[in-house]
Specification:
The protein is built from six helices and five strands.
């Protein structure tokens, strides 16, 4: 079973709970990294553990949720080899995977319905990276040794 770490701040808590159940039903090894209640939290505390698992290869893909998706994506994208994409439609999720090899789906929990979140998640999970001309573009995302 493929591991999928998932986490949310307070704004994404309820939707995360539903997606945890959905991922488990789809046969994934769901690693729920919190939050565990709707009490106010700080999104970086939850973004970093998911991003670390993807960064180190402990997981190929992950899922994050917060109110807009932006805070989680900012924190997750600070990690090498992480390409966290905010997706608000299945088409955006598909393009993020197909063209950008996104490896963390970030959902804006305050702006998508549960039904839309399911469709976005499905698109993210089902879409492969296209490679080809997109490969060199993705390679240019990581800073080279000369620019560090």
């Amino acid at each position: 079973m493929e591991p999928i770490p998932i986490a949310a701040d307070h704004a994404g808590f309820e939707l995360k709970q539903k997606l945890v159940a959905r991922l488990a039903a789809l046969g994934y090894d769901v690693q729920d990294l919190g939050t565990d209640s709707p009490a106010s939290t700080d999104y970086p505390d939850f973004a970093h553990p998911v991003a670390e698992r993807v960064e180190t290869g402990a997981a190929r893909r992950g899922v994050l949720l917060c109110g807009t998706g932006l805070g989680m994506s900012y924190a997750a994208n600070r990690h090498p080899h992480v390409r966290a994409a905010v997706a608000w439609t299945p088409e955006i999720a598909e393009l993020a995977r197909r063209h950008n090899d996104a490896n963390i789906l970030v959902l804006p929990a305050r702006f998508v319905s549960e039904d839309d979140a399911d469709k976005i998640l499905d698109a993210f999970l089902a879409t492969p990276f296209e490679g080809g001309r997109h490969e060199r573009r993705v390679e240019k995302i990581e800073p080279s040794a000369e620019t560090q």
